[in-house]
Amino acid sequence: MSLGLPGHLVQLTLARALARAAHWFALTCLMAAVVSVGILSLTRSPELWITIVVVAAMGALLILFTRHRRITLAVAYLIVGTLGVYVFTTTVLGVPDVFPASNMFLVALPKMALVMVGGAGTTALAGVLWSTAAFILAETAAFLAILGTAVPYRPDLFTLSTYLVLVGVMVLAGIDRRASNAAQPAIHRAVQDGSNRQLRDALDTRAIALLNDTTVAQLVALSLAEPGALSPGLRASLNYTLATLHDTNWLTDIDARTNTAPRPTVTGTATENTPKSPVSDAWLSSAVYTAIERTRDRGLVVEVTGDRDALACLDAGSDRDVGLAVEQCLVNVILHAGVASAEVAIESDLSTISLLITDAGRGFTESESASDRLGLRQSVRRRIEQLGGSVLIWSRPGAGTSVRLTVPAATHTPTNPATSQTARNRPTPRNPPMTRATPPSHNPATPRNPR
Amino acid sequence: MTRATPTPRRPRAPASASQQRLDPIGGLAAWPLAPVVALIVVTYAIVATISRMHEIQITELAAASVAVLMIAAAVLVWAARPDLAPFTRTRAVVIVALGLAAHLLAAASTWQFNGMIQDDFAPIGLGLLLLALAPFRPWKEILTLGVSSAVVVGVTALAQSPFLGIQTPPFLFAIIAMTQVLAPALASAAYSRQVVNSIHRWQTDARRAIRARTEESRGLLATEVVDQRLKNLGADVLPFLADVLERETLTAADIKRARSLAFQVRRVLVAEVDHTWLDDLIDRERLKLTERGLNPLCVIADPERRATGFDSDQRAAVGALIVALCRLKGFDPTSLVVQIDGSGEAPADTDQITQAFGHRGARPTPAADTTTIAIVTAAEEQAATQAKAQARAQAQVHAATAPRPRTTGLSAIDTITIQAGISLPPFHRRRALRPYLSVLRAVFTRVRVTSRHPLLTLEFDAERTTTKGIK
Question: Could you tell me where the DSSP H helices lie in B233-356?
């Protein structure tokens, strides 16, 4: 991941992390102290119980301070800690005939814990000041305590070096990052640019697909027509193309529709689809229906079979894209197949909706399609893949063409109108790679009779 | 699709996350910690050994102990070097293992004659080494290493307890020794955890903000795209269609014209479809260089459109690097070459047509028909052709000389080579590019930088486990 912290957050973040580290260091020292004096008081000197109380009090204040980070708590920790160091040092070193000198690690433990108060400073300077104060207080308290015992005084290097390391780390954290100030915003910008470009790509994909559907298809249709008066079909499609392209909002429109609430899903009775059931609103308002109607206007006989109401499972955006993809497939039939009829079969299961567009026309080979790959590639495949679906194409010269579009369906729960919206964010089901796909259940060369 | 998700829940940082991985530039700033700690560890070991000469029974072991600890410190400095990032788990384990070995050797050298546990240098050294891991390794790993080291140190202290100068319960020695390791180790783990969580939280928010910003510009982008498309469509197509519609008749000339226009438009669209984000990026930089009054010549050689397989982090890292290179003082605007090749399948982004009738073994169509895309300013088409040939030749040389890593299964490795001429002193160049390289190292593997003044060559690998199209 490349999005690092921006300059204005660095100090705060490092200060927090250092505070956390300092608190754990201090807690470990206090716990070690409690366990050690606990063992000592059990085995040797029962009078050490007072040190357990003192250290426990320090620990409790430290935890409070970690939670709330208030100055009053820091001051309280300093005061209690200084007293604690005094009591701890006096009592522990007062145990006869154990410790040869004052510079025992055990005695240094509460002092090191006290020095760590500085880690909570929000800036390096504040941190250094706090720990310096704590260091001076702790050493003074310990020195006074040692004077009252029979043990000879030796300077305590443990606390001193802990103090120095802490100060060093805080200073290091305080002065870092000056060199890389320019790079972080540059990375951030690059991520933003990438995100914009991704959106732009998606819009571009859609735009190219749409242009291919309208303009290129129109030009190809004109180039294949006979000279003379325009046929009604051609006129209708020319009108449609020009109207689409002149409408400057063609891209944003699609987009706006994607964001609108999905159409209400069909009621339970309508999902029980039979050819005789009344044609439902869901089917008539779907973009697939509009697409089919449009190609029917251009003279293609399109037979629709299967579960038409399943299309209600698509949200507005998916519906529109599937409609455009179906239209492109049917336009391909008009332009290339050399037959006047095609069949659209709609199937659905719980998670996906499939549309099988079949014709018994000329068919094509790979090499032929390579020169004309834009239509299938952009208008059909990319569109469907953007929805998280997949496209399978079966074709052979002379044996017709079948295209199967599979798109994920929204979870079909009529009580929850927001489902198709959430479906867009759901991981899409992986479709098997096409090389392993099985051909459709029937031979597309001989179109099946409608039920 | 990039769409802002309304869920406010923040995902947890991955367990393998460290400050260096999440925030490579921040990790860069933390690197001086390693040499400082190494210096302290070594100095303390030497001073402590000299001052305890009377306790040492086997001088060779003591010397060996200091030497091993020095090696551990050296490994730490080496492992933390920004140009060798990322700091791997193996490096951390080796450092701690060396530290433990030094500890055992030191304990052996003073066996039965150790006066006090607390002035042993090895536990403190070990603790400091663990402390230095904080910016580089995940907290759980530091914790595990710390606890296991503490156990070893504690056991050695227990074993030495009968011979020590102070008469206290043996467990006390174990606690003292363990605290010297555990306190810095826990502090280190706490730091790592807190920093990683903070960065991760910020990244989640930042990504959300970026998505929101992108969504805001959606309308603007859409208008731009439409404008550009209509402009590319040429002034011819729409008037022609309108004209035909108005006349209501088709002439033979119309049909011919329609055919040629269809061919042209399709050609333009196909070229657009083959455009990748990398082309866009270079286009933009080229424009900026031209605006600065330079004559840029930037070449992209990505015949298989492998750039489409990069994820957003990788795109951002490469993008930021290229932008930085182009804006560097002393950058030679005619020298930039970006080349992507590699092993394994190219990302599947092209049409695949299955022919299931007749023969069973269906196979996908070959990839895009473009071989090398080189785009240049209009005035320099000739130079472009040359550069294209050069790039192709380079690609061939590269293909012939560079060893191809073998891949198995679905994984594929893309090798990206970026070449640029920069007439800056090496020191300045290194300093300017260091942050970008640190980011590159966090998202790519095997980043190699070679420099033959003034030519700078960066090579790095991207591993893809699945082949995906546009992301």
Answer: 234-247, 252-273, 277-291, 312-327
